Amino acid sequence: MNNPKELKYTEDHEWVRIEGDLAYVGITDHAQDALGDIVFVELPEAGRELERGEEASNIESVKAAAPVYAPLTGSIAVVNKGLDETPELLNQKPYDTFVFALKIKDANEIKNLLSSDDYDKILAAEKER
Amino acid sequence: MGKRTPLYDVYKDYPGVKLVDFAGWELPLHFETGIIAEHMCVRRAAGLFDVSHMGEIEIEGPDAVALVDWLVTNDVASINVGQAVYTPMCYPHAGVVDDLLVYRLAETRLMLVVNAANTEKDLRWISRENPWMQSRNEVGGTGGEGNVADLRITDRSDDTALIAFQGPRASELLRQAVGSVVDSISAFEFVETSEVFGRAVILSRTGYTGEDGFEIFAQSQDAAHIWTSLMELGGGREVLPCGLGARDTLRIEARLPLYGQELSSEISPLEGGLKPFVKLEKSDFCGKAALLEMKNKGVPRSLRGFRMIDKGVPRPGYSVYVGSKKIGTVTSGLRSPMLDAFVGLVLADSGVLEKGMTIEIDDGRKRKRAEVVATPFYRSRGRKG
To answer: Do A42 and B311 count as a contact with CB atoms less than 8 A apart?
Structure first.
């Protein structure tokens, strides 16, 4: 598994990087591999308030569309505008390419996120099925 | 676990291969480079597809041409040995049983190349369920299934492999390997030859990509040798293996229909954009009366192209609106690698859409704007048809 140790994860195959009161969110290598060539990212509007688990963004590959959920409650602080022109960065560098960053509303929610070890186990279990 | 083609063992270990279930077959969706790179390789050089899942039905006997000419909407009776013709095959009510290629192998021997998902259904339809056969059975008595009168109908799908070699460089690369036989074949022609890497094949200048190219019918046991030999053409650098993903995006760009999307038992070929392949002037054929009536009364729906103004992939099943009125449904769509735009096909109520008009595509979350445009979205420069 090549999922960076310093990141947090969700069962929806997203990664989260906490920087101060911001949570940067992207999709995992497994997610980009499953989606295949990504051709469009529907980015959320800055300032939008989201509950944890709410759909924030939509990623479209050649074959499928997949939502990106807010891993934490908060408001959209930053969106990665570069994805408008180069959505394929999500395929090429999934852990260096965030989709959006949330201003975290409740830091207690962070403990619900998965460690890289937990996420590796989920992937291993999915592979078993 | 799905059925596997004779080529499965060759590409199952290719790096990055992603296998999917398609109509009960385990087939590659794409290889290491991904769908877009495969698509572009076919547009610019050449790509190799395993399409062995397609069905091959051979019909032989003095009545073979008469039967097939009655079953399909295009003109089969006038093609010569060595020619192939693309055609829909209709039910009496004008809905489509399947779309297929008919190859005239000999005066009284035809090969029908049909969609994998429809092979069983087509066999039943052709060998006993269609009205021509039904009337023969009643008059002729004991013909036995599929062997009425002077007809032998044989499913060759299991022992036939089919490899598509497609792209502007395909003919040149193939010529280096198999010689000038390549130049003797024009579009929609074929030869039976043993000169393709020393194996007996049907070499056909046909395809489903909108590019020049070939389809090679081979015995199952020869498929791996032919595939690997083709992969080595151009020093192993120019030819990419391609999966079902690129096959789909290539055919949409060229506006080639896919059964189940642009065509079905509920969509007539006149609606699905196949008017040139429906010869209403030929003598009676299955569906003719209904198609004539549809033509005279006005074809209720028509297939149109659109280009997204707001970004997003238009996917099959999305509803299409003009103002508050739903006027049709998306049948296929993609981000076109050649146009760098999101485009799609809509089966729309006739008479509503005009080029340049703005329509709205409902993706289930919101409505996105699109503009009605001409099709095909892409046309190969070197290709006439």
So the answer is: yes
Residue B342 and residue A40: Cβ atoms within 8 Å? Answer: yes
Q: Can you tell me the ipTM of this complex?
A: 0.87
Average pLDDT over residues A99-107: 97
How do residues B217-272 score in pLDDT, each as one tens digit?
999 999 999 999 999 998 878 899 999 999 999 999 999 999 999 999 999 999 99
CB-CB under 8 Å, B313 with A39: yes
Query: What pLDDT is recorded for position A6?
Result: 96
In CATH, the architecture of B8-52+158-253 is 2-Layer Sandwich (3.30)
Between CA B75 and CA B98 the distance in angstroms is: 16
Chain A residue with Cα closest to B332: A63
Using CA coordinates, name the residue in chain B closest to A58.
B312
Cβ-based contacts of A36 with chain B (< 8 Å)? 18, 29-30, 34-35, 245
Q: Domain B300-373 class?
A: mainly beta
The domain limits of chain B are 8-52+158-253, 300-373
Cα–Cα distance between B335 and B307 in angstroms, integer? 10
**Domains delineated in chain A:** 8-105+113-128 (2.40.50.100)
Interface of A with B (CB under 8 A): 36-37, 39-40, 42, 58, 60, 62-63, 65, 91
Name every residue in B having a CB less than 8 A away from some CB of A.
18, 29-30, 34-36, 245, 249, 311-313, 315, 334-335, 342, 365
A50 three-state secondary structure: strand
Out of B30, B35, B311, the one facing A40 most closely (by C-beta) is: B311
User: How many Å apart are CA B198 and CA B225, to the nearest integer?
Assistant: 9
The rounded mean pLDDT for chain B is 94
If you count residue pairs, one on A and one on B, with CB atoms under 8 Å apart, how many are there? 37
Q: In three state form, how does the secondary structure of chain B look?
A: CCECCCCHHHHCCCCCCEEEEECCEEEEEECCCCHHHHHHHHHHCEEEEECCCCEEEEEECCCHHHHHHHHECCCCCCCCCCEEEEEEEECCCCCEEEEEEEEEEECCEEEEEECHHHHHHHHHHHHHHCHHHHHHHHHHCCCCCCCCCCCEEEECHHHEEEEEEECCCHHHHHHHHHCHHHHHCCCCEEEEEEEECCEEEEEECCCCCCCCEEEEEEEHHHHHHHHHHHHCHHHHCCEEEECHHHHHHHHHHCCCCCECCCEECCECCCCCCCHHHCCCCCCCCCCHHHHHHHHHHCCCEEEEEEEECCCCCCCCCCEEEECCEEEEEEEEEEEECCCCEEEEEEEEECCCCCCCCEEEEECCCCEEEEEEECCCCCCCCCCCC
Parallel, antiparallel, or unpaired: how do β-strands B213-219 and B160-166 relate? antiparallel
- Residues linked to residue B102 through DSSP beta bridges, in sequence order: B85, B112
